[in-house]
Design a protein that fits this description.
The complex is a heterodimer.
Chain A (H helix, E strand, L loop, with lengths): L1 H4 L24 E3 L10 H6 L1 H15 L8 H21 L9 H28 L1 H6 L6 H28 L7 H29 L3 H14 L15 H4 L3 H14 L5 H26 L2 H4 L1
Helix pairs in contact in A: 3-7, 4-5, 5-7, 5-8, 5-9, 5-11, 7-8, 8-11, 8-12, 11-12
Chain B lengths: L4 E12 L9 H16 L2 H5 L1 E13 L4 E5 L6 H8 L7 E6 L3 E4 L12 H11 L4 H15 L14 H13 L5 E5 L7 H16 L3 E5 L3 H7 L2 E6 L2 E7 H12 L5
Parallel strand pairs in B: 3-7, 3-8, 5-6, 6-7
Antiparallel strand pairs in B: 1-2, 1-4, 8-9
Helix pairs in contact in B: 4-5, 4-6, 5-6, 6-7
Classes of the chains: A mainly alpha, B alpha/beta.
């Protein structure tokens, strides 16, 4: 080991940074023990790692449109093209009643939150599996990965929202002042819903790769069960209560209502928030329970 | 002196799946999944499964500033030990007290993205390893100088040679300044000159009172760097003592029996 014997002779300047002396704390900073089954996810720890969350979001934003021609323009083009096609077909054939809102505008205002929700859930569901090397080699709160996937889609949502404002200007639809207060709450509800479901599917995805196949189909069905292409007024009165158990129904309907100054459906909004809260609580416990096994079974 | 890491009766096992009976259909699998909670309540499920012990009743204490080598055959449990210490996986029994921040480099270049530039990767990787943005910015020039990749900073990492890649990854990890640094077979790469730098860096880290765990199959390196060595065999800690004595035992153990 001639090589190693020389190691001691390297002058200190060559080593670069002068390290700070380590001062270990008197109390253990962490006590590692076998699983403690029922506890929610430690959100304080996630908050401590918020810079990591931000960097992962920036990484994915940077990489997604790497080697594409149109780059971030796709974020607007994708729902816009959907809107054009659907408006041409459904608008001419079905002529849905949309409370005086021009059908293309109505559609885009539905496709916008839907695209966010569906892409966020799908992206989050893949976040742990595609970052398997991180999960199995480095410790950090695992919730960061699905949360970052939702963050990426939220950035898309903000860009695509600017196109919505432009459309409203074009059609002369003015957002009411009252909507400005409600609107952020409606979006927050959607973000939490997407994060909870995304994290739940992400943890299931580790054990059951079927999630990758089944989830896109489920989401497709979910779109038709939500007021994206049609107003919820089309649903028969006696089935409305069941319809609003779908948290997206109240979410999307009130998203439009807040923007276009239509009457707010309080009951639907509360039902949506209730289902979201239940899912957030369920996921925070189940994710915490399953995350101990991620590294072993990924 | 206060310990830096205290490990008590640590065990880790993996449940082995029972072999599926021949001709079992998906319906049987479904039925067995349905009845699993009942079996678990009766305490049958656990007993029915075999256990693969990765670690079994391991106990030791390490003081701040110690450089501890960990040796053993492939699959002996070395990596599992480091994974538990870094909280990547949980133990099945026993407990560990960790005093201070843990930094680990279990595989060189984890979290590096080939399409991002060297500069972007330093920030991303540093953050993944637990550094704050301001801390990385402060140490950025030193990290880059240590890795000797100054001219290639704005090039995507996929165009780096494997040596450059490794140097940059090690450099980021070595500048995290954790109280406890876990290294798994990571210095085996890079040329002799860079290895010398790595070893000198590790000595400096330990002089400042940081604890280092060093897993390697290169016994010469272990003997050179570590004063104390843990020898793990089939999940059990069989030797724990001064480096030269334990390494001699290990070498004896590994030697093929005389014909």
């Amino acid at each position: 080991m001639r090589v190693n014997e020389e190691a001691g002779r390297i002058p200190h300047e060559q080593l670069g940074v002068a390290l700070a002396a380590s001062r270990p704390p008197a109390e253990p900073s962490v006590r590692i023990r076998p699983n403690k089954p029922w506890a929610p996810v430690d959100l304080g720890e996630v908050w401590e790692h918020r810079q990591l969350l931000l960097l992962l979001v920036l990484r994915d934003l940077k990489l997604r449109y790497h080697q594409t021609l149109l780059g971030a323009t796709w974020v607007v083009l994708q729902p816009l093209m959907m809107t054009l096609v659907l408006a041409a077909f459904l608008g001419l054939m079905a002529r849905p009643q949309t409370d005086g809102i021009p059908y293309p505008l109505f559609l885009y205002a539905g496709l916008l939150p839907w695209t966010f929700f569906s892409n966020a859930v799908l992206g989050a569901s893949y976040s742990l599996v595609t970052n398997a090397d991180l999960v199995s080699k480095i410790y950090f709160p695992r919730l960061i990965l699905p949360a970052a996937a939702v963050g990426v889609r939220l950035a898309d949502f903000v860009i695509a929202f600017v196109a919505l404002l432009a459309m409203m200007l074009y059609y002369g639809v003015r957002p009411p002042a009252a909507g400005a207060l409600l609107w952020p709450l409606v979006v927050l509800n959607l973000v939490l819903l997407a994060a909870a479901l995304g994290a739940l599917f992400a943890s299931l995805h580790i054990r059951y790769r079927d999630v990758g196949t089944v989830l896109p189909v489920l989401l497709q069905l979910w779109m038709f069960a939500s007021p994206i292409l049609y107003p919820s007024g089309l649903v028969p009165e006696k089935w409305r209560w069941a319809y609003y158990l779908n948290p997206l129904a109240g979410g999307v309907e009130n998203f439009r209502a807040a923007l276009f100054g239509l009457p707010i459906n309080r009951g639907a909004l509360l039902a949506s928030a209730g289902v979201t809260a239940a899912l957030v609580i369920y996921t925070s416990f189940s994710f915490r329970r399953m995350e101990d096994e991620f590294a072993d079974s990924i | 002196m206060r310990p830096s890491v205290s490990v008590r009766e640590l065990s880790k096992w993996y449940g082995l799946a029972r072999p599926r009976p021949a001709g079992a259909s998906i319906l049987d699998a479904f039925g067995s999944a349905l009845s699993a909670p009942v079996r678990r309540m009766r305490g049958e499920a656990r007993a029915g499964r075999g256990r693969l012990w990765a670690l079994r009743g391991v106990s030791f204490e390490v003081e701040p500033g110690e450089v501890v080598g960990v040796v053993g055959r492939n699959g002996a449990g070395k990596s599992t030990l480091l994974k538990i210490l870094s909280r990547i996986t949980r133990p099945s029994a026993g407990e560990v007290d960790v005093y201070g921040r843990v930094g680990s480099l279990l595989q060189v270049g984890t979290g590096f993205h080939p399409d991002l530039t060297g500069r972007e990767n330093v920030y991303l990787n540093g953050t993944i390893l637990g550094m704050h943005y301001a801390e990385i910015r402060r140490k950025f020039d030193e990290i880059v100088a240590f890795a000797e990749v100054e001219q290639f900073l704005d090039m995507p990492v996929k165009q780096y040679s494997s040596g450059m890649h490794v140097r940059l990854a090690f450099s980021v990890a070595a500048h995290v300044e954790p109280d406890i640094l876990l290294l798994d077979e990571v210095t085996a790469v890079g040329d002799a000159a860079f290895q010398r730098k790595c070893f000198a860096k590790m000595r400096e880290i330990s002089r400042k009172g940081h604890t280092v765990f060093f897993v390697s199959h290169n016994l010469g390196t272990v003997g050179d760097l570590c004063r104390r060595v843990l020898f793990i065999e089939s999940g059990r800690l069989v030797e724990d003592g001064p480096a030269q004595a334990v390494l001699a035992r290990y070498a004896e153990h590994m030697a093929p029996p005389a014909a």
